[in-house]
């Protein structure tokens, strides 16, 4: 695990990242580790390419095109206008033309045309249709793991083509032929067998939480609890398992617990559903995504909770906000007996699910939480909008609530806040560079280079405004930035969570 | 998976050099893995590695960073019970690098 050798891009003099001169094939050497027998078989996929890989790939492609009409529309609709070319953080950081969203999609589009459109079947040379070869399959594996499915390019596409869906379809086909990615697929096994992406078993979770309760009491003198598997609690809280394990993630976990404590809430976490994240989304497999989401529904039913609140995790919030409805009936719409039961059980006065930032902001507005903002005076804070929250979900009742609510929370607990350049935040936010299943050591070069646009924007506010803290609401962003900011000359302690800031400033009444 | 010879014993490691079978671990193997990581093992490194193995025996997972820092504070003194000190010992990150030397599986997830 010696540090990988590659050239770290230079920071620019402004908040913006210049469009690089194209370097053909500059990232052609990248190859994520391939999933082995164990994880592949657990997910129901082969683990080696068979002689019939091509037939299987085309077969799966046909099924995907039927099941997801969107994929067919996206493959058909592109007119190669080029609006997306310079919008991808991976292209800006690597200069590899295959990382232009249009070109990355073209790797699949050319095969689609060849086998699924009439002109491509008859006269492939006229319409840019090409046979599916092993070389193309290898390129899929390479470049569909140099896309974090962040959907920034989609914002600028005049047709609204969602490149992430092409990447997801690509990964699903790769899995189906036995060419899966080790990182994501190992995690999808662990979450289904043990209950979280880390593989943290119940007793270890219990021990970890007990230790954190001790720490908080030592720090504050207040007995803040970290309840687990409490039958009849009002709130089920699900959060990424990294919050139990890592720095700086755990600082936000402590923050959530303090908020619940200050609000006098009846809450619990679950050892069965000790993971908010759902890598099924990254792989583009609806059934896997459903199985992972089901654990949360099962825990909600079993514990008899009335509300479900989700911690700081970008894609978890997208899955919860946009997919739980149809995946598991937790929102509304499910009409199977379990969904009906859950509907009766959940309290209709609250948004189901609720984001922890919505919950905290609501309490702040009601005057329930008290803060001493000066405790954060050593920090000058900026906020990085996480891609899946920014472009795949909402918070609150107003358009853009997913942008204002986390900022409102931050401004309630710190005195010094500055936003980064407008084209790099909000709906136009740049991905951290580690999302969508890219957050693995074997893709470190992709991660470091992909972080360049965000690092340029951060560097600008650091230089001009003295910003020294990058506030986040996503476990992947936290892990990614902790690892990559040192490559750009920043200390990893500048990276942390929004509820870490809340945790620093909140005033708890002594028992 | 690749096989490597360490002090007369053949052991299997994965693509990143993590031991495939926990039972293959011994001090020679740890020294070999540390060398691969360019970590010069001192007594303090061993304290961390030994704690990781004890914890893993009990819980089948590496300890969370807070659990680890607390345990190290107890053994080596409060000034060493922090993330910064652990990064000094294991520059690539205590969770991954120390686990590797301790022969434990690589922690996965958003970490």
UniProtKB/TrEMBL annotation, chain A:
Matches recorded under PANTHER family: FUMARATE REDUCTASE IRON-SULFUR SUBUNIT, HETERODISULFIDE REDUCTASE
Single GO MF descriptor: metal ion binding
Entry-linked Pfam families: CCG, Fer4_8
Family annotation (PROSITE patterns): 4FE4S_FER_1, 4FE4S_FER_2
Entry-linked InterPro entries: 4Fe4S_Fe-S-bd, 4Fe4S_Fe_S_CS, Cys_rich_dom, Helical_ferredxn
Record domain 4Fe-4S ferredoxin-type: where: 69-98
Keywords linked to the UniProt accession: 4Fe-4S, Electron transport, Iron, Iron-sulfur, Metal-binding, Transport
Protein name from the UniProt record: (Fe-S)-binding protein
Residues of the signal peptide: none
Organism whose genome encodes this protein: Parasulfuritortus cantonensis
Automatic annotation (TrEMBL), chain B:
CC per GO annotation: cytoplasm
Membership in a protein family: Belongs to the DsrC/TusE family.
Gene of this entry: tusE
Pfam families linked: DsrC
Record's keyword terms, sorted: Cytoplasm, Transferase
Top-level taxon in the UniProt lineage: Bacteria
Predominant place of localization: cytoplasm
One example of a Gene Ontology biological process annotation: tRNA wobble position uridine thiolation
Active site as annotated: 110
GO MF, one example: sulfur carrier activity
Compartment(s) of residence: Cytoplasm
Protein name: TusE/DsrC/DsvC family sulfur relay protein
């Amino acid at each position: 695990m010696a540090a990988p050798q590659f050239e770290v891009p230079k920071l620019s003099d402004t908040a913006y990242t210049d469009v690089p001169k194209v370097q053909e094939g500059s990232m052609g050497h990248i190859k994520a580790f391939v999933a082995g027998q164990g994880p592949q078989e657990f997910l129901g996929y082969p683990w080696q390419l068979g002689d019939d890989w091509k037939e299987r790939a085309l077969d799966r492609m046909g099924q995907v095109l039927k099941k997801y009409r969107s994929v067919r529309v996206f493959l058909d609709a592109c007119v190669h206008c080029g609006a997306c070319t310079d919008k991808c953080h991976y292209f800006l950081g690597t200069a590899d033309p295959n990382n232009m969203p249009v070109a990355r999609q073209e790797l699949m589009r050319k095969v689609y045309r060849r086998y699924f459109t009439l002109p491509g079947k008859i006269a492939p040379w006229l319409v840019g249709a090409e046979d599916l070869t092993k070389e193309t399959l290898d390129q899929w594996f390479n470049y569909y793991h140099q896309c974090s499915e962040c959907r920034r390019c989609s914002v600028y596409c005049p047709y609204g083509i969602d490149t992430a869906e092409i990447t997801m379809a690509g990964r699903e086909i790769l899995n189906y032929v036995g060419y899966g990615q080790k990182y994501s697929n190992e995690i999808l096994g662990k979450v289904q067998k043990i209950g979280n992406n880390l593989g943290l078993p119940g007793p270890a979770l219990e021990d970890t939480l007990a230790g954190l309760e001790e720490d908080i009491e030592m720090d504050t003198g207040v007995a803040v609890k970290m309840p687990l598997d409490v039958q009849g609690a009002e709130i089920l809280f699900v959060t990424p398992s990294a919050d139990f394990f890592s720095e700086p993630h755990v600082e936000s976990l402590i923050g959530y617990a303090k908020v619940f404590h200050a609000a006098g809430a009846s809450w619990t976490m679950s050892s069965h559903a000790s993971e908010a994240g759902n890598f099924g989304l990254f792989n583009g497999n609806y059934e896997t995504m459903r199985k992972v989401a089901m654990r949360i529904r099962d825990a909600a039913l079993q514990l008899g909770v009335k509300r479900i609140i989700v911690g700081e995790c970008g894609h978890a919030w997208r899955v919860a906000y946009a997919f739980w409805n149809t995946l598991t009936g937790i929102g509304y719409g499910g009409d199977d007996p379990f969904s009906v039961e859950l509907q009766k059980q959940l309290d209709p006065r609250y948004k189901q699910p609720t984001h922890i930032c919505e919950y905290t902001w609501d309490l702040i507005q009601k005057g329930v939480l008290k803060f001493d903002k000066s405790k954060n005076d050593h920090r000058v804070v900026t906020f990085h909008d996480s891609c899946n929250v920014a472009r795949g979900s909402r918070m609150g009742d107003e358009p853009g609530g997913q942008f204002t609510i986390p900022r409102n929370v931050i401004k309630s607990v710190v005195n010094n806040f500055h936003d980064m350049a407008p084209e790099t935040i909000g709906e136009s936010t740049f991905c951290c560079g580690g999302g969508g299943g890219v957050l693995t050591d074997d893709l470190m070069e992709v991660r470091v280079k992909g972080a360049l646009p965000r690092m340029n924007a951060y560097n600008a506010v650091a230089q001009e405004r003295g910003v020294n803290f990058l506030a986040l609401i996503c476990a992947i962003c936290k892990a990614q930035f902790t690892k990559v900011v040192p490559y750009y000359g920043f200390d990893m302690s500048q990276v942390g969570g929004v509820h870490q800031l809340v945790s620093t400033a909140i005033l708890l009444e002594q028992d | 998976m690749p096989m490597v010879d360490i002090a007369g014993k053949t052991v299997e490691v994965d693509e990143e050099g993590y031991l495939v079978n926990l039972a293959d671990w011994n001090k020679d193997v740890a020294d070999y893995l540390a060398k691969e990581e360019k970590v010069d093992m001192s007594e303090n490194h061993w304290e961390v590695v030994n704690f990781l193995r004890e914890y893993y025996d009990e819980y089948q997972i590496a300890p969370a960073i807070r659990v680890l820092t607390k345990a190290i504070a107890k053994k080596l003194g409060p000034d060493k019970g922090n993330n910064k000190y652990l990064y000094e010992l294991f520059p690539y990150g205590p969770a991954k690098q120390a686990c590797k030397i301790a022969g434990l599986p690589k922690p996965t997830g958003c970490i």
